[in-house]
Structures are given as C-alpha cells and as structure tokens.
Recover the amino acids of this structure.
C-alpha cells in the first residue's frame, strides 16, 4: 500500500486566533516494496519514506534541508526524525512505533512522511508547475510468448514505445516456462496502465493501444499474445 494526500490540518491558536489552518502533504507506506518480477523481496520502511521526501523536496526546489531529532508522538525512536529546512522543523518522516500499529491490527512496518507545504513553498528556489494525476487509468495484463533468448528489457522497451503517449506504467510481473508453451519459448507477462491527462480513456482507445503493441512486438521480436 502506498497512499498520499494533500489537505488542510488544524491546531489550536493563541489570543484572538482560535485555530490555525495548515496545508500539508502526507504519504503512508505499508507492505511489500514491489510487485514486479524484479522487485525487492522486502517490506517498505523508513528508507522508502525518506526517498519520497527527497523526491518531493527536489521537485519543489527545496535545498538546505536535513533530518533532526526524533519527533514526539507515535513514532519509532530509532527509525524516525523531524524534517528541517534551514534548521526549522517543517515535518516528520519515519516509521510508526510497532506498539501503535499492533494496537490498530496492522501487520508489518508502517512508514510515513508529513510536511507543511506552506513552509516548503516559501523555501522553494524555483517556480513549480503542477498537473492533475489521471484519475481513471485502464489496466491490462498482457502476456507474450517469445523465444527463450529474448531479453525482457527489449520487450519492455518495445512495449513502451508502441504504447506511446497513452502508456502510463508498465511492469513485468511474471515469467513462465514449460507447461503448454512450445519448447525454446517463455512467457513474459506485463501489467500495463493506459491513461490520458485530460480524459478517461474508453475501452476502445485502450484496445487500439493494445493492438499497436501486439503488432510491434510481433514484427520486431516474433512475440505472440498469449490467450487466457
């Protein structure tokens, strides 16, 4: 599981201001680090949360940041830290303490990142342009039968090029040999997401992209789409 949210949080204010509203970005990670064939066989942890933090700060143009002391609250004392920008706290990252996750009936590690966007944008050194994440991708699982000596990287490259602008993500998730496959061949299965930034793709549009991929792999790599 890997989820994120951007939204408003509230805390008590002082004097005439009864409360303070802060806009923050948060992410939570739990479970296997990856599902692809070549993915790491490990659980998501604090280092993955730190990688998300580094990417976010880089994309927002924030430099001069560091990790500070262990934050208060439900955090693991050895796997969490405050996020500092120019020595000012702007958020937290790390893992939730196992006692807390067990009390919520959550198995395994839970890693989080929470940062205040106002502080980050104030510290940003560049103008940031944002675009919406496509909301409704079309997911297809495509398995191809190919000669045994065909590199998986060549297949993925051709698939991505054929999918062109409609291909949002492509991940190899299964390699199969034997069974009913002809001798000297193997099956490579890819999870493919088709998406468009300005609309929800129709099944017909996704199928056109699939047909283009099948034709490209057949002509270039002697691949056939595996039925079933």
């Amino acid at each position: 599981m890997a989820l994120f949210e951007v939204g408003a949080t509230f805390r008590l204010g002082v004097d005439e201001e009864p409360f303070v509203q802060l806009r923050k970005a948060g992410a939570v990670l739990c479970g296997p680090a990856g599902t692809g064939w070549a993915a790491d066989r490990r659980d998501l942890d604090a280092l993955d949360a730190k990688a998300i933090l580094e990417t976010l700060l880089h994309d927002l143009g924030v430099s001069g940041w560091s990790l500070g002391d262990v934050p208060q609250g439900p955090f693991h004392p050895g796997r969490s830290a405050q996020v500092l920008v120019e020595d000012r706290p702007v958020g937290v990252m790390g893992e939730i303490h196992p006692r807390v996750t067990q009390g919520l009936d959550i198995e395994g590690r839970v890693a989080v990142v929470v940062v205040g966007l106002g502080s980050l944008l104030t510290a940003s050194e560049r103008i940031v342009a944002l675009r919406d994440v496509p909301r409704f991708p079309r997911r297809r699982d495509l398995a191809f039968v190919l000669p045994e000596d065909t590199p998986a990287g060549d297949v993925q490259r051709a698939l991505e090029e054929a999918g062109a602008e409609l291909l949002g993500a492509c991940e190899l998730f299964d390699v199969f040999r034997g069974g009913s496959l002809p001798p000297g061949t193997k099956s490579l299965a890819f999870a493919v997401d088709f998406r468009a930034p300005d609309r929800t793709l129709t099944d017909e549009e996704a199928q056109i992209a699939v047909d283009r991929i099948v034709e490209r792999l057949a002509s270039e790599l002697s691949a056939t789409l595996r039925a079933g």
